[in-house]
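Reopening this one. Same input as before:
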Amino acid sequence: MAWKTPSPRVRELIRQGAEIALHPPDEWLDELDAATLTGETRRQIASDPVLAAGTRRVNRSNLLFWAAANVRDPGEPVPANETETPLATARDIVRRGLDESALDAYRAGESVALRLWTQIACSLTADPGELRELLDVSLRSISAFVDDTISTITARMRAERDELTRGTHAERRETVTLLLEGAPITRERAESRLGYRLRAAHTAAIVWTDAADPDLRRLDRAVDALAEAAGHTRPLSVLAGAATRWVWVHGTPDTAPLRAALDQLPDVRIAVGSTAPDLDGFRRSHFDALTTQQMLARLTSPSRLASHHEIELVALLTSDPERADRFVTRTLGDLEGAPPEVAETLRVFIAEQCNATRAAARLFTHRNTLLRRLARADRLLPRPLAEHPVEVGAALEILRWRGRP
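Same output, byte for byte:
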């Protein structure tokens, strides 16, 4: 259908509306994010912190791209959004093994955008004729823009998939995938293709960044630091996405030097799996690292380094985030909003089997200071600590990894 340029008056209304859309309130963006990251078809994206962060950036990119085009040329067709933001996220989607069905998120975002734009349009004019023309042009424009962008991104995803099927990287990723799926590939063949011994104790990790403009060299330095912390100079590293590495090392990394290395690598995060031997350990450690990464994403945790043995209980308790939040609020009461040092003192006290001397030493604080904080914490709890120490300890662990609102 030929594109019909709207009347001068409607062009001006579209420009006014686009200027409003260029400065969206937070609740609009929250609604877009919720729509594009919920639902069964988008569960894999929502549970991956890199893909989820990329999807949020794409939402903003698409909204601002369309709005800016209509400020410049109101009512004219808007070309597909081929900027780096959607293209980078599309590459990561392919490298996670997902297909074009992941672009269903664009449709979910479109439905929200159409409704929000209709609200804007209705605020610009009370004239039925103007409103009819305004909505006819702009809603067709939004739909065409989303269609064209999806078509462009789909083509780029297919090209990326073709690229990944060639070369040594593709062979390494294919071999790792076969091992993780328990496919019948011999140990000898897998070791030959990976250049990595499988007859050993393995610790898997996921190294990633969700920064908008990441320095990917920092990921490689983090992989080296992880291997060094385990006393292993030749890690197995697989490119799982533009901003994600799947890593295996022999042995167990020492978290103290690893944490120190991360202090020099802003925006890089590491989720560490369990340590276990042989092929089963290779698989189990990776899935434990995934569980750790997904829990950090689910709780929007600020922690940049987490090990599976630290978070296993919390991961189980927070599989349903809403119920976990209710459990924390019900169990901790006013302590949930208390100064962080009060809740942390009680958490460490419980972790040290309610031994005040050991807790004070671990916190590098005076024993009397610790006792005062414990007394304050007990007053803030809905029920005395002595009546339900296990529940309080679990709630405090959730609070620790969730971070403060």
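So the earlier flakiness isn't reproducible anymore. For the record, Residues 8-164 form a domain with the Globin-like fold (CATH 1.10.490.10).
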